[in-house]
Design a protein that fits this description.
Length: 67
C-alpha cells in the first residue's frame, strides 16, 4: 500500500501550526474473540514538514460483493 495523496491539513503539535499531513496505510489480519479472521487497515498520519505523528485511524476494508 502506498502513501495517500490526499490534501489534508491539521494542527501539528511540533510545528505549532496547521500543516499538510500525509497518510500511510498498513493492512493487517486480526483475529476476533470468536476466532474470525478479518482485515484491518490502519492509516497513520504524519506532518509533511517535520514528520511528527499526528493521528491514526483504523478501518475495515469494504467487502465487494459480486452478483
Amino acid at each position: 500500500m502506498n502513501n495517500l495523496n490526499l490534501q489534508i491539513s491539521e494542527f501539528c503539535q511540533q510545528c505549532q501550526n496547521v500543516q499538510n499531513i500525509k497518510g500511510t496505510p498498513v493492512k493487517r489480519e486480526e483475529t476476533t474473540s470468536e476466532g474470525v479472521t478479518k482485515s484491518v487497515v490502519t492509516i497513520s498520519y504524519h506532518c509533511e514538514v517535520c514528520h511528527t505523528f499526528v493521528r491514526s485511524e483504523e478501518h475495515e476494508p469494504e467487502k465487494k460483493e459480486t452478483i
